[in-house]
Each structure stands twice: as structure tokens, then as C-alpha cells.
Amino acid sequence: MSEMDVRVLFVACVLPVMVLGFQDGAGAQACLNLIPVHDGTTANTTQAPYSITVNATSIKQGTTVTVTLNATAADGYFKGFLVQARCTKCTTADTAIVPGTFAKYTASDDTIQTKNCAGVDQNSITHTSAVEKTSAMFTWTAPSDFDVSQGIEFRAAVVQTRPIWWNTVMSDEISVTAAPSSSSQSALGMAVVLVSITASLLL
Questions:
Q1: For 150, which of 30, 89, 109, 110 could close a Cys bridge (C-beta 3.0–4.6 Å)?
Q2: Which one is predicted more confidently, 192 or 202?
Q3: Please, are residues 143 and 62 in contact by the beta-carbon 8 Å criterion?
């Protein structure tokens, strides 16, 4: 086998691995710092042509918010992304992934998939292929024991093409408030019953 044949064989073997790594979703290396492993590239420092929006700015512990990643330019698109919920009031805010749970907004959507980062189930969400997309919609459920003194925001690394990507795409901050305790809910239910009984006696 000639030296040229060896080179061609090497490229033929390595190239699919590189491409599949891009197509099948963000790699584990991107989990901590939202930096995709694209050899020889760095994050774009211009204003990202993408946005992350949420359908609520305050939710209760254990409840769900809808999150949408959009291309904001008229002809904009993206091929890959990784989105996480990050703590905004932690001392390690830049690296603190909030262990909530992502899910597809539409169960049949085959363009996105949840991802386990740092050994935590479904705490991130990413793409499934390098097909051009203009938006992605998913949900995130806050932990039932979330520390309400902290806040969260959704952060993303978004890849337009392999050399061009941003990791400064962020949502507005969301506050998480305490869910009613079971005793409070029982007391409320009892109060409603008593009011109903009293009203019926007065009739």
C-alpha cells in the first residue's frame, strides 16, 4: 500500500467520526463550559443571532417552564446546540448546572434529545442531527427541593456551522418559589369545605 493510499484510508476512517460527533448531539466535553470540541475554532464574540425565551419568569418548586431557542435573523438557522439551566446566585454560577429535568415539548420531535451531564439524568438538552433548524422547543422541570434563594437562567452553546458558534446565549432570569406544603393544601381544602357547609346552613 502506498503512502498516498494510507493517507486516504486514514481520512476515510477519521472523517465520519468527526462528522457523527457533530451530528449526534453535543459531546460530554461541552457539558461544563458549553464549548463544543471543534478543532481549531473559538467562540464567536459578536452578538449571537439567537435567543432563548421562557413562558414564565417565576415558577414553583417541582413545576415546569417551556423554553424556546430561536434563530433571530430573518434567514437564520443553527445546526447544533446544548442548553442547560444554570444557577445565577451560586458562588460557582458559571459552572453550576441546576439538576432539573429537560424533556421534549412534543414527544414526536426527533430533532432534539435530552443529555446527561456530570452524571445527572436529563439535566441538559441537545440536537440529534446537523439538519438546519430555526427553532427548538422543550420543557424544564425545577427540582422539588430547589433552593428558592437562588435563581436560574438557561444558557446555550449554539452552532451555526462547525467553525461558527456562540456560547453566550442566555434567557432572562427565572425565580423559583416554594411549593405549598401538603399541610397547607389540606388546611385550604378544609377551609373551603367549612365555608361551603356554613353557606348551605344559612340558606
A1: 89
A2: 202
A3: yes
Going by C-beta distance under 8 Å and a sequence separation of 6 or more, which residues neighbour residue 177?
58, 59, 60, 61, 148
State how far the Cα of 37 lies from the Cα of 129, in Å rounded to an integer: 16
Cell 449526534 belongs to which residue? 24
Question: 3-state class of 166 per DSSP?
Answer: strand
CATH fold label, 3-181: Immunoglobulin-like (2.60.40)
Instruction: Name which residue leads in pLDDT, 136 or 186.
Output: 136
Mean pLDDT for 118-137 is 94
* Residue 17 φ then ψ, to 5°: -65, -45
C-beta atoms surrounding 180 within 10 Å: 13
Distances in whole angstroms, Cα of residue 178 to Cα of each of 90, 139, 145? 18, 20, 9
Distances from the Cα of 21 to the Cα of 80, 92, 158, 193, angstroms: 11, 29, 15, 59
